[in-house]
Design a protein that fits this description.
alpha+beta; nine-stranded antiparallel beta sheet; two-stranded parallel sheet
């Protein structure tokens, strides 16, 4: 898994308004939209997906065990890595390292890397609410159902595949890049989380239009040059 492109710093964006719009990255947007950037950085959008670092992981990995219809899931931390031990696609227990966190509130899920570019979501998640609200605990996503290996809802199956089912809504400029001949993925993104352009669309034309063009300073106009506009209520009144 790798980024689709390196983020472009604000001074380096000199693209003309013509051509296909490009993703320029939240660092470019921040140059003019400081207040919005601050609000975004404090939002769950920035925590939609992150590498499983100490600051990102909220779940308790201090050797916890969850039993679900006779199947056990154990989460531990070993040698600086967070691990999960549970039945794999063949039904036999195996240990897997956690690579990414997925979401932040009211629950956080975790991803495991598999061959051929696949990432799978675990069948257990961490309830990130405080314990006074019933949270701070591990729970199974299918609480009332025994999900066995071979079932499409089993955690290694297609319904729990990050590339196919989850990725598009949690990262920016996501490209699944499924390769049918090899039954594999080469999934890419420009930003790992839900950044500005995930909703507003690629911003290169907007950046170019808002800068000095042919020596004439254009007055700011929100949304100019963006492929997505959030002005559907402009001029609308409700009786």
């Amino acid at each position: 898994m790798r980024p689709a492109a390196t983020l472009v710093a604000a001074p380096a964006v000199t693209a003309a308004c013509g051509g296909a719009p490009r993703y320029v990255g939240s660092a470019t947007c921040a140059a003019c939209h400081e207040a919005q950037t601050l609000a975004w950085r404090q939002s769950d959008h920035t925590r939609a997906m992150r590498p499983a670092t100490d600051s990102a992981v909220q779940g308790d990995f201090s050797d916890r065990l969850l039993v679900h219809y006779g199947d056990t899931v154990r989460v531990t931390a070993r040698e600086g890595r967070r691990m999960v031990t549970l039945a794999g696609a063949d039904g036999r227990p195996a240990s897997y390292p956690i690579t990414h966190t997925f979401g932040a509130y009211p629950l956080q899920q975790y991803l495991v890397a598999f061959p051929r570019g696949r990432y799978q979501a675990l069948p257990v998640a961490w309830d990130t609410r405080p314990d006074t609200a019933g949270g701070a605990r591990w729970f199974h996503l299918y609480r009332d159902e025994p999900i066995r290996a071979g079932d499409e809802l089993f955690w290694t199956g297609i319904a729990q595949n990050w590339n196919f089912m989850c990725a598009e809504c949690h990262s920016t400029d996501l490209r699944k890049n499924y390769i049918a001949a090899r039954d594999s993925f080469a999934t890419t993104w420009s930003e790992i989380d839900v950044a500005c352009e995930a909703c507003h669309g690629p911003g290169s034309r907007h950046v170019a239009m808002e800068r000095t063009i042919l020596g004439v300073k254009r007055p700011p106009r929100p949304g100019r040059g963006l492929t997505v506009r959030f002005d559907e209520r402009a001029g609308v009144t409700w009786s």
